[in-house]
Design a protein that fits this description.
189 residues, mainly beta, Jelly Rolls, 6-stranded antiparallel β-sheet, 1 helix, 13% helix, 43% strand
Length: 189
């Protein structure tokens, strides 16, 4: 009888552990941007009171590419206040230099002013490697967008505060696209 109880308990613990592991694995979302495209067309829902985004992402070999003449920043994740992301938004970005070096940065649109028009609205935060997991938290607080990427911090003035917005999903380029499929796994904490 004791053996039966022990095996039942052990089986129950094993099933519970399996369920927990499977649930943890399913919270990662894979975004694939096909060659020649800018986005994967996964649009996030409108969110009320979006003032913080906390996420992890995994890099891989698809992040490497040769620079184009119209080199821009690729968007990993971010959020926007209001309908138009070019009004007030904050984004974690990256670019590849000469198919060998990956750099991660951040930039903000502030009341319709792009980071290309105001150097204070963008920064290089660090270098990154493939096949690693990174963490980022972006907060809108006290009139500022605050970026916490791993052990790095940067802030930028935020634009007009609206009570709603949406998450910004991965996007390749400004005007350029890649000649191969690109992918990232993102976990929204």
């Amino acid at each position: 009888m004791k053996k039966r109880i022990f095996y039942t308990l052990l089986t129950s613990i094993g099933i519970l552990l399996l369920v927990v592991i499977l649930e943890a694995c399913t919270k990662w979302t894979r975004y694939v941007i096909e060659a020649g495209d800018h986005s994967c067309e996964k649009i996030s829902k409108q969110l009320m009171g979006i003032d913080v985004i906390d996420f992890s992402f995994r890099t891989n070999d698809t992040w490497y590419y040769y620079e184009s003449k119209s080199q821009g920043w690729n968007k990993i994740r971010g959020f926007s206040h209001g309908h138009y992301q070019n009004n007030s938004s904050a984004r974690l970005t990256y670019k590849c230099i000469n198919d060998t070096l990956l750099i991660v940065g951040a930039y903000c649109y502030v009341d319709g002013v792009s980071p290309q028009q105001n150097a204070r609205q963008k920064i290089i935060l660090d270098t990154i490697s493939t096949d690693k997991e990174y963490n980022c938290r972006i907060i809108r607080e006290d009139g500022m967008y605050k970026f916490y990427f791993e052990d790095k911090y940067w802030d930028c003035p935020a634009g007009e505060e609206l009570s709603w917005g949406y998450k910004l999903n991965p996007y390749i380029g400004g005007s350029f696209t890649l000649s191969h499929d690109w992918m990232v796994d993102i976990y929204d904490n």
